[in-house]
Amino acid sequence: MGKYSIGAIIWAYRSTIIMIATPLLLSPIPIYFNVAEPLYWREANCAYILAIMAVYWVTEVIPLAATALFPIVFMPIFSVNTSARICSQYLKDTNMLFFGGLMVAVAIEKWNLHRRIALGVLMLVGTTSRWLMLGFMLPTWFLSMWISNTATTAMMVPIVQAVLLQLKETTTKNIEGYDNPALENDPENVDSTITEANGKPTDASGDDLEGNGAGQEEDPVYTRLSKGMYLCIAYSATIGGLSTLAGTIPNLVMKGQVDILFEKYNDDTHTKLTFGTWMVFALPTSAICLVIAWLWLQLLFLTNFGCCKTKSRAQDYTQRADEKEKQTRVKSAMRKEWKKMGRLTLAELLLVIMLVILAALWLSRSPGQVDGWGSLFKAKYVSDATPAILISLLLFMLPSEGLWCFSNNKDERKPGPSPALLDWKTVEKNFPWGVVILLGGGFALADSAKESGLSDLVGKAFESFRGINPVVLAIIIGAVVAGATEVTSNTATATLLIPIIGELAIAIGVHPLYLILPTTLATSFAFMLPVATPPNAIVFAYGALRVVDMVLAGIGMNIICLGVVALALNTWGTAWFQLDVLPAFMQNATIISTTTILPNSTVALPLNCTCPP
Questions:
Q1: pTM above threshold 0.85
Q2: Torsion sign across C-alpha atoms 132, 136, 137, 143
Q3: What does the UniProt keyword field contain (predicted)?
């Protein structure tokens, strides 16, 4: 023990210390209010459990999903909420939307459809640096709308690594003045570095290609190019997840919390927030962020900051040494990998059809301005979870191969049914079950806060913010949340903050979505640190990236994306969601307050909100 200082020992046991100390340090909250202020004992008990969960979520002393189970045990024990009501929150409609969407994503990954889409896009774009970067970003962005950001990044990074190696080898050969006809002409060597996403890329000899390589002096232009290419994957995966409700977990958290908030006041206007209406708002926002991110990364990593008349060495890396050979090698690598995947299979074709049908059903159920197919049924009887589960069920029924009875004589299969597109073993192995529990824990926490009256107390406490300009407040909240999510889980951040932000909006007389929407999007703006998101961690492990590189690029990305969200919120977001008109329950509350509390005063509603006469 003498070898270690007290500080080192404390740091080694920090998780245990936080785990034990947190409930003890926060225990005065329920003790005081149960003894001295019994009127608020339920609110205090709920706040106590919420505070413990918040600390555990932020510090991750136990798994996030394990913390999410706290309400099942402690809310009934502390007489905050009933066990039956708490447990029902863990499989709400939003959870089933996530469940169905993720099963489709698992099927896509099983049949490598995402890889075919990515390679197809790369073969369509040019092979110069800027177009290669866009070619990497577009499929990553699109795929992240439907499958997890982590899976998309893990699939794309080995492809980036292989393309970069072709550029590096060609440049090294020309600069050092050697010629290797075998390497140049052997197509097997061209794609030898494209590996599966679950392993580190290696060259033909099996040497690890991670990092710059020991004993070699790295070309600074190649290093800058590598940094830009790796970061573009992480950024486009994060940005793509913003576009759909199923694209990233904070979006689903927001949907569930908004439902709980509006149901609390018996207001049905929350049904306007559907998969389709969200996509109308978020898809243009995401697309603008993607284009600006592409330009920003070019500015940082593909241009020279010297005299503007001097041609940039990094602006178009493939034009150095031997442009034609570089482009040939890159194209050969892509073509070889494409050929290796073979022809489009029946399984891939059916998956494309199912994905298109699912997207169409989501978008057309309740488009917003016109009635969708959801109006054919009784109100509230169908939701976005309905088509998600329908398509998931079809995946367990549709064949992955042609029927044996229609096969030709060359088919050596035995008579029998074809394997389905999806099987339950694959779902069990690849489905992120912990996220379902984490979502449910957030909903259970929000419902308990509503039932105990804690959310009402929070709303009253926020009334002092009524004089703040809502536009400024939305920007401040977005910046604070974006900073917080760099060091905390974005799902935990969304779960904790969105209910509070909703009560804040109601307290100051602003449409709840006006503050909830930027809060939700900002929880995904974790661009600065490797630990902020799994995509960041993946590219940091693969590329020649330093923390300072990610911080400098990430600061710009945070500012850019927050600016785009502010623009979207106050233009098409306000028009689409009618954020300048208060929900019915807030209009009624405003009328009551002006007639009973301030009979001789008028209330100025922010954002030109209107009240009925």
A1: no
A2: positive
A3: Membrane, Transmembrane, Transmembrane helix, Transport
